[in-house]
Amino acid sequence: MNKFMLTCCSTADLPYEYFQARKIPFVCFHYMLDGKEYADDLGQTISFAEFYRRIEAGAMPTTSQVSVGQFIDFFEPFLKNGQDILHVSLSSGLSGSYNSAVVARDQLLEKYPDSTIIIVDSLGASSGYGLLMDMLADMRDRGEGIEEVHAWAEENRLKVHHWFFSTDLSHYKRGGRISAAAAIMGSLLNICPLLNMSYDGRLIPRKKVRSKKRVIEEIVHMMEAHAIDGAAYSGKCFISNSACYDDARKVADLVEAKFPRLNGPVMINSVGTVIGSHTGPGTVALFFVGDKRED
Fold it and tell me: What confidence tens digit (pLDDT) does each residue in 98-111 have?
């Protein structure tokens, strides 16, 4: 039996039941919605449908990262139980949670000097971060030790590709991420921005694609271009969506048609409440294992 605990943040955006079944404890980010604070608890307190309904009605949620104190409270029970910890954090390019986890580790090691606490920067987000966790959990379950799993994570985290598109620019405009003029022009021209995660864990706009049909085709083309073994890709594929399941299903159907050797059907998840506070509804994200992200 492995001694170490594999943990992550709620922003890995896989189902609550998945983390329970795989024995991966997660620490919750938090967000404010209509003047009240909630835990990003994977739809347990507020359903994803209700969360996105309230955004579409005009709510503008704000988010907060996990604090040093929250990480200490999360980690310490495992240490008291004699377990080492391998914690994988949300990308440092999107949040300061990685730094908070490192500070918490340093403080706890003063109290538990014989313990091992390793913090890994996933350089990923949402179900791409979740796909990395899935592979690490497989290694743990095969009996790999904490050092082996850590080394593999550092070596392979940039091989997890994250491609996103949005069909609704209104939330980006409300949040000040694009200008009102750009949002109006984008809507008039039916533009769906295509973005991906860079080597340093930041979201980078790559293309402006006209029409939903074309951006769905383009995002799958990116998988054809970058997935290990191309159309013979035999790994897993995850998709997350923010209140646009039908669009996600179209992407999944196209992926399953083009990649017949996939390891199981595409898993479609919801973009969680913290990531969704920044994307709003209308975002579809595609995740797979491919060549190393270098720009």
Answer: 999 999 999 999 99
Map residue 197 onto helix, strand or coil. Answer: strand
Quick one: which of 3, 68, 8 has its CA closest to 272? 8
Distance CA 127, CA 124 (A): 9
| Closest residue by Cα to residue 223 from 269, 272, 257, 270 | 257
Strand pairing category for 238-241 and 5-9: unpaired
H/E stretch holding 272:
none
| Pairwise CA distance, residues 37 & 238, whole Å | 29
Residue with tokens 């080394």, as numbered in its chain: 151
Confidence band for 191, pLDDT divided at 50, 70 and 90 = confident
Distance, in Å, from the CA atom of 203 to the CA atom of 192, rounded to the nearest integer, reads 15
Q: Which residues contact 88 (CB under 8 A, 6 or more apart)?
A: 6, 7, 8, 12, 120, 122, 129, 132, 133, 136, 153
pLDDT digits (tens, 9 = 90+) for 40-55: 999 999 999 999 999 9
The H or E element spanning position 110 is helix 97-111
Predicted local confidence at residue 210, as pLDDT = 87
Closest CA to 89 of 107, 103, 76, 108: 103
The pTM of the full predicted model, rounded to 2 decimals, is 0.94
Instruction: Identify the pLDDT of residue 168.
Output: 74
Please say whether the beta carbons of 101 and 91 come within 8 A. Answer: no
- Look at strands 5-9 and 26-27 and give their pairing: parallel
Rounded Cα distance, 71 and 45, in Å: 21
